[in-house]
Amino acid sequence: MAQTLAVASDIMGQRLFAPPSVKGWDGGRTWINTSTVFMRQNTLLYLLTGQRPDSNAWEADGTHFDAMQLVAGKTRTPKTTIKYLLSSILNVEKPENDRIATLEDYIKTQNNKINNETVTGLLTLITAMPEYQLC
Question: Same domain, yes or no, for 129 and 86?
Answer without folding.
Answer: yes
